[in-house]
Design goal:
- The chain is α/β, with parallel strands linked by helices and 267 residues long.
- It is 18% helix and 15% strand.
- It has five helices and nine strands.
- The strands form two sheets. Strands 1, 2, 3, 4, 5, 6 and 7 form a seven-stranded mixed beta sheet that branches. Strands 8-9 form a two-stranded antiparallel ribbon.
Length: 267
C-alpha cells in the first residue's frame, strides 16, 4: 500500500499490504511509493544483514507469534534454498529477511513457506518464463522480501504510514507481520490462503504488475486486486494463474478505506 508521505520515528531510524494502476505499481494502498533510489535519496538505507538464520529444531509445542508495534529495523536473513532448482526463463533472485523483534516464528520455516508459495505451479513462475530463486546472506539478489513490524513497515514503504497494509517499494517487498499472523476480516478464505495472496500480490508489484479490479461478481479475484481492503463481489483468490491461464481483471483500484494501524502483539 503506497503513498508519498514520509515520517520519522523517535528512535531516528529513517522515514516512514485509489488511483490508476500505473500509479499503483509500487504497492497496495491509496498512493504510490517511491522507488529504491528515491528512498535512498530520502535517507533510508536498506537494513544490513546481521547473520543468516540457522536451521531451527522442531518445536516441542506451538508458540504464539509476538511482535512490538515498532521494531528495531534489524534483520535475520534466511539461508538460500537447497537444492537450487533448474533455471528456466528469466532468473530473479530474492532474499528473505525477518525483523529480529518478531518472536515465535522460526526464520527457516517462514522462508520455506515463501519459497513454497513462489514455486507453486499456479504462481508467477507458471509457464517456465520466470525462475524465482531464494539466495542467502551476502549473495547477489534482485529483491528482498521483508517480514516487518507495523512501524518498520512504514519506514521501508515510505508511503502514507498506515501500519496496517503491506507494500512494495523499489526492490523491497514488505509483508506486515500483523497481516501474516491475523489475516483480514471477511476475507472468505483461511489464513493460509490469505498469506499466499499477500506474497503473490506484493511480489507481483515487483514484477511490474499494477492493481486490478474484480472482473465480475462471483468470479475469483485477480491476485493484483487489493483483496486486503475488499473483494467487491469477487471470491478470494491467492494465485495469478487459474487452470494454466493468467487470471486478470480491469486495470485500476477501489477507493477503500484502510483500517486503523496495528498495535503490537505481546507474547
Amino acid at each position: 500500500m503506497t503513498g508519498k508521505t514520509t515520517r520519522r520515528r523517535a528512535r531516528g531510524v529513517g522515514p516512514a499490504l485509489a488511483a490508476l494502476s500505473a500509479v499503483l505499481l509500487a504497492g497496495c494502498g491509496q498512493m504510490a511509493a517511491g522507488d529504491a533510489a528515491a528512498g535512498q535519496a530520502a535517507g533510508v538505507v536498506d537494513p544490513v544483514t546481521v547473520s543468516a538464520s540457522a536451521p531451527a529444531p522442531a518445536p516441542s509445542r506451538l508458540v504464539a507469534v509476538s511482535y512490538p508495534a515498532d521494531g528495531s529495523n534489524r534483520w535475520q536473513v534466511a539461508a538460500a534454498e537447497s537444492p537450487a532448482r533448474r533455471r528456466t526463463g528469466e532468473l530473479l533472485r530474492y532474499r528473505v529477511a525477518v525483523e529480529r523483534d518478531i518472536r515465535g516464528l522460526p526464520v527457516p520455516d517462514f522462508a520455506d513457506e515463501i519459497t513454497r508459495i513462489l514455486t507453486d505451479p499456479r504462481g508467477w513462475t507458471a509457464g517456465g518464463r520466470l525462475t524465482l530463486r531464494r539466495v542467502g546472506p551476502g549473495q547477489p539478489a534482485d529483491f528482498t522480501i521483508y517480514l516487518a513490524t507495523p512501524g518498520t513497515r512504514d519506514e521501508l514503504c515510505q508511503d502514507v504510514p498506515d501500519g496496517y497494509t503491506s507494500c512494495r517499494n523499489g526492490d523491497r517487498v514488505v509483508l506486515n507481520v500483523a497481516r501474516w499472523v491475523k489475516g483480514v476480516p471477511r476475507y472468505g478464505a483461511n489464513l493460509a490462503t490469505y498469506r499466499e495472496y499477500m506474497v503473490n500480490h506484493e511480489v507481483g508489484h515487483r514484477l511490474g504488475h499494477g492493481h486490478e479490479r474484480c472482473p465480475g461478481r462471483g468470479r475469483p479475484a485477480p491476485v493484483m486486486q487489493q483483496q486486503t481492503l475488499g473483494l467487491h463481489g469477487c471470491r478470494a483468490n491467492p494465485y495469478p494463474y487459474l487452470d494454466g491461464e493468467r487470471h486478470t481483471g480491469p486495470s485500476g483500484a477501489y477507493d477503500d478505506p484502510i483500517p486503523p494501524r496495528e498495535r503490537g502483539r505481546p507474547g
